[in-house]
Amino acid sequence: MLMAQQSAAAPQLEGYSRAASDAERGWEEKFRAVPEPDRVKENMRRLSARPHHVGSPYDKDNAEWMVQQFKSWGWDAEIENFYVLFPTPKDRLVELVEPTKFTAGLKEPVVAEDPTSNQADEQLPTYNAYSGDGDVTGRLVYVNYGTREDYEELDRLGISVKGAVVIARYGGAWRGIKPKVAAEHGAVGCLIYSDPGNDGYGVAESFPKGAGRPKDGVQRGSVNDTAFPGDPLTPGVGATKDAKRIDIKDTPIITKIPVIPISYADATPLLAQITGRIAPAKWRGQLPITYHIGPGAAKVHMRMFSNWDIKPLYNVVAKLHGTDAAGEWVIRGNHHDAWVNGADDPISGISAELEEARALGEISKQGWKPRRTIVYCAWDGEEPGTLGSTEFVETHVKELKEHAVMYLNSDSNGRGYLWMEGSHGLEHFINGVAKEIADPETGLKAYERTRLATILEAKGSERAEARAGGDLHIGALGDGSDYVAFQDYAGVPSLDLGFGGEGRGSEYHSIYDDFYWYSHFSDTKFVYGKALAQTAGTAVMRMADAELLPYNFRNTAETIATYVTELKDLLKTEQDEAEELNKQIDEGVFAATVDPEEPIAAPERKAMPPFVNFAPLENGARDLKESAAAYEAAVEAAQANGGAVLDTPGVAAINAVLIRTEKAYLSEAGLPDRPWFKHQLYAPGAYTGYGVKTLPAVRESIEQYKWANAEKAAVEIGKLLEDEVAVLKEATEKLKGLAAGK
Amino acid sequence: MLMAQQSAAAPQLEGYSRAASDAERGWEEKFRAVPEPDRVKENMRRLSARPHHVGSPYDKDNAEWMVQQFKSWGWDAEIENFYVLFPTPKDRLVELVEPTKFTAGLKEPVVAEDPTSNQADEQLPTYNAYSGDGDVTGRLVYVNYGTREDYEELDRLGISVKGAVVIARYGGAWRGIKPKVAAEHGAVGCLIYSDPGNDGYGVAESFPKGAGRPKDGVQRGSVNDTAFPGDPLTPGVGATKDAKRIDIKDTPIITKIPVIPISYADATPLLAQITGRIAPAKWRGQLPITYHIGPGAAKVHMRMFSNWDIKPLYNVVAKLHGTDAAGEWVIRGNHHDAWVNGADDPISGISAELEEARALGEISKQGWKPRRTIVYCAWDGEEPGTLGSTEFVETHVKELKEHAVMYLNSDSNGRGYLWMEGSHGLEHFINGVAKEIADPETGLKAYERTRLATILEAKGSERAEARAGGDLHIGALGDGSDYVAFQDYAGVPSLDLGFGGEGRGSEYHSIYDDFYWYSHFSDTKFVYGKALAQTAGTAVMRMADAELLPYNFRNTAETIATYVTELKDLLKTEQDEAEELNKQIDEGVFAATVDPEEPIAAPERKAMPPFVNFAPLENGARDLKESAAAYEAAVEAAQANGGAVLDTPGVAAINAVLIRTEKAYLSEAGLPDRPWFKHQLYAPGAYTGYGVKTLPAVRESIEQYKWANAEKAAVEIGKLLEDEVAVLKEATEKLKGLAAGK
Lengths: 742, 742
Prior knowledge:
- The structure is a homodimer.
- With about 750 residues, the first copy, chain A, is an alpha/beta fold.
- Chain A folds into three domains: about 35-85 and about 310-440 and about 475-550, Zn peptidases (Aminopeptidase); about 85-225 and about 250-310, 3-Layer(bba) Sandwich (Glucose Oxidase, domain 1), CATH 3.50.30; about 555-740, Up-down Bundle (Transcription Elongation Factor S-II, Chain A), CATH 1.20.930.
- Chain A has helices at about 1-10, 20-30, 35-45, 55-70, 150-155, 175-185, 195-200, 265-275, 345-365, 380-385, 385-405, 425-435, 445-455, 460-470, 485-490, 515-520, 525-545, 555-585, 590, 615-640, 650-665, 695-705, 705-740; strands at about 75-100, 100-105, 130, 135-140, 165-170, 190-195, 220, 260, 300-320, 325-335, 370-380, 405-410, 415-420, 495-500, 680-685, 690-695.
- In chain A, the strands form three sheets. In chain A, strands 1, 2, 4, 5, 6, 8, 9, 10, 11, 12, 13 and 14 form a twelve-stranded mixed β-sheet that branches. In chain A, strands 3-7 form a two-stranded parallel ribbon.
- In chain A, helix 5 (about 150-155) links the parallel strand 4 and strand 5 (about 165-170).
- Chains A and B meet through helix 13 and helix 19 of A and helix 13 and helix 19 of B.
């Protein structure tokens, strides 16, 4: 009885009548009492017991086991298959041929303490998926992280990678950018190594003594081009058995040059033999050598050939059917495939998702029924390029656009702070959820712990906002997990959640990312697995049960206004920098400051960036703010006095309009040069990979000095913003009508 | 004839009549044509041929040779001896006793290519002079650079060094600060090692392949307390044979705990055995280990005992006697003692000074006679603690205050940019000199090259000023070479000059700082040695020959105004930070952001800094600006129309007043807690060592939260500024009188 009183005293949830809100709070509390750390742990032990990459026996076995689990908890579950191009190594060789001989081992040894590290028969060798085939020899050049900025520095140093094999360290940008930019500059091959300064002894003792990557540990990973995600042979189309496929020769996804990832034990003998210019201070890692750039004494021969096979994907799709609004879907997902055993990536996430699903099944047995249909997914093929989720979205895009109200993703999970990214229409919503979750280490609410950390780390207005206690800002989504197709292709409002930020070292994408490592060095008590299950499950329930979809457009409008300001600042900065640079060239600054023993050329003169018409964006952002405020007022009015009006059939028509809000941001033509990416607010950067670019068509055009594109995109996005305003006004009018009893 | 015409067209030098200016320019050009790189080189070869530390046979031999050289060039030269406490190692031991055994080699091996590296009989062993004697054993704790900030971090991590032996890396602060702060925190011993990330393979290939410190290379150096410079037994008194000495037990100069410097070859086995907390990211060096802080498994035994002998110093003092103003002295100095062979430190500087002296002798033979007396010094005992120059100044302080118009110092010299620090009354003067000197690498004037580098590197107003082409700002002098006593004890306007900033790696204070190293990796053509001789010699001549001393007080006034603004900003920052910190403690920010596996305590609450009365400083700075402008106007008037009035006997009385200008900044009481330091504008920081603190009595009081001291000092310095104003007004009136023919 006491609990019921507390619930009644709690604020009315947005999108809920008082009665529905009280009921919801009661069920959410019941739900959060169910997840158990030990069950999360046992899920991990089972799912990571053997290597389970795409096409492996245990990948399928895991999928089938999960289907059975879902069914045992009362879910309607099945496997949906796709068939995708997934290369595996046929021939790998890296050898130093000059000035001395050395052949890289390309092998991660068994660690005695670690019981799954010896499953060599099932382990994928160390490689980068979608590397082009090739057998090449060239002088070795060290290119730091291998980003475009690094090549600008090389240009100034007078160093060309034409005909060379480059070696880049992991970090600084998504790995697929490294061979892409290397090939653009004429390199014939690319090695990527893990510097101990980034995830080895520089940050933690080497495994198994500590959590750090050991000397022979290698980061596998895909290097697919960022033209589109998903199966390389079926862009924009579901990779079903009979789908029309493009020829492998025609896909832009495969790198132009061979790429092989190596350990620092393999990299050190190569790097130590490079002569020529010493690397700039920022380029140096933590190996006990002097980092030289080359090209010089070191010559490398590398060979990389793949088996270019089509492999089946096993997506698990499980449903809890809705009641009054069964035609609206709340989708939750986490991938289940790994590069090897993948206890951290992705099993820490999917283990929590399964525990969540069990808990939802549990309260269903107690009488709870979701208003909307809940769809729980375990994706296959995320590692090579979000294959499973992308093919699912491409296959069902039409229905998703009509029915899906939210996609909620997670992936690796660890100790620390709740971390939230996503569509800003869900920012206020997910902040509300974060206020319900107890952080296992401090007992604070997850929202509060992150808020206090923001006060500590942020500066200026961001600190002041955190101090004022408003919504924590969520970052926009780029790439890196299975939300990409949902958000960028189908316009489904999406979120990505997880805990992390504590602990040191990483065995990312190596054979040591396994149960032994995770249970010794990460969320060893599995309490953050439980917390993730509580967070995601609460979000799913709250979205599923709301009478009116709890979207909030004020945060989106404010965020877009911020982006527009950023773009104006970006252009101003580009103009100022170009002016200053050209002035310095004229003054002879660069000629005067050259050390003749280490010559460096002046940067190239820059064309002065013109002014760009930002008015369409500014008008759109302002109009959006106004209509978001009007909609918010209408929601408040509808919720007043118990909000019984929300519990009437008329609300369905309003929800139908609300589902269209995110779609207004889609453009059928997609981004310039990347037509697959439809969303005009968010996209992964063409040259950052994982990193997001907001208002990408304008931002990247400015960054790339494509002024006509920037002008055009500003006008087009301005129009999309006005379209959004129109949809919002329609929703507002309908809601006012409902409240007025019309 | 053509040359004469060019000279005539050149602007009239400040402090000169037109006729004197033209003559001066002619002689300066003749002077600058004399110095030869090969002679600088041969000076270095001779002076660095054997180890020549204080008390060694070759130290005396060098001094005697230099006296002969000066004499052969027509100078009046002699040796002035002092007798100082100079400890040398009797017993050194560093051994790991737990968990494994390891005994440090404490030895720099012979390098076959390097012909002087084998002079073991004459080399001083690796040690830190003025280490306290002791035989101690303790758990080993890594303290990063061993600064006060590092111990604040240790406090928050809950790590005490009480009873421990600490190991700090070189860098971050002057070495003497490390044992001082360690002892303040209860440590029983201190090791200091050279991390390869700072001057070893992290920046250059190891010697002899490159210029970088090799694995066994050690940085010797003094760790004397900063209470006062010079002989530890004769503070404030010249250390003549019969000087009254304090007891060795009573000098504050010797460290409270034993200190030994070690190589990274000796440090690695020790560091690798430390367990406990992993060091924060900023604390990690470039050794191939995980840096732990401890205390943990590693226990160290160290023993350090010195022979506490009195050794003779051999200062070389050479004079070219002046004519009309023989009673005014222009003093030039560079030390000649080294830790071992010291080709870079200090022979690169003294070799140039000798070539300068030869060139001045050369033009004397051609008829040039300096108006003032020129005094060229080669100091002994700089390395242990500016012993030779300090004892000289203490002995002659009364005459120096009356007669010395400038002290110009140099020390190590290399390739790159002209670098100028000093008293701001000489800022405008030395900028004028820098405009005469050709940079050997670019052919630009040294002023111009540094100006363009400032445009490249500076931001905001500093960039704009450099662009406008005004005087380059010179930094204030802290500690680190022989200007300290001249400026801080005697109030002689001082400058420190040198070229540098190019080249990589360093053999600083090791046996490898020798002719082989310097002639392979530094100013290998000795053209910057020639440039230093041209720069310093031109400055000496221009100061010696001016009719009116070319001091400019506008730069000083502007610089002091800047310092006052800095102090106000500093207090504001302290207040803001205290407010923010206390707020965060109240909000529970620190408790919320603790990782329970790596706990860290909240910082301690800070008392709110009160407002301080800066008005006396502000009034003083403003008044000084006004009177500096008035004086400048008077100079311009006197110089107008050929300025023949400057060439009259009456100018001597004005110069006598000008000599008093810098003395106005001295306070007999000295700084709070450091009475030896008399100058109230500049001092080395009590906890930075080399680093300068400007308006130190106020600045350090604010930094140390000693508010009453800050208030008191602001009033006192305000008074000194008004005293300076009075002296300036006197000079201005006298100059006006002279111009008016009174």
